[in-house]
Amino acid sequence: MSGDKSKKHNPSKSQDLRSKDNKSKPQKDAKKGKDKDGDEEMTVVMPPSKSTGADPNSDVTANGTSDEKEQEIIDPKVKASNDIKANVGLLERAVSQFDPRFTLRVLRSIPSIRKQLSADLLVRAITEIYTTPTPTSFALLKALSDEDTFPKAEADAWYKKKDGAQSTPQKSQTPPKDILPEVDVYFSILLQVYFYDTKNIESGAQFSEALIGHLRTLNRRTLDSLAARAYFYYSLFFEETAPLPPSPNAAVVSIRKELLDALRTATLRKDQDTQASVTTLLLRNYLSTSHITQADLLISHTQVPDSAANNQVARYLYYLGRIRAIQLSYSEAHDHLIGATRKAPTSYKASGFYQASTKLLIVVELLMGDIPDRAVFRQPSLEKSLAPYLQLVQAVSSGDVNGFQNLTAKYNATFRADNTYTLILRLRQNVIKTGIRMMSLSYARISLRDMCLRLGLDSEESAEYIVAKAIRDGVIEASLDHEHGFMKSKDVGDVYSSQEPFDAYSSRIRACLALHDESVKAMRFPMNQHRLELKNAQEARERERELAKEIVDGEMDEDDGPGGDFEGL
Question: Fewest CB within 10 angstroms: 116, 330, 439, 461, which?
Answer without folding.
Answer: 461
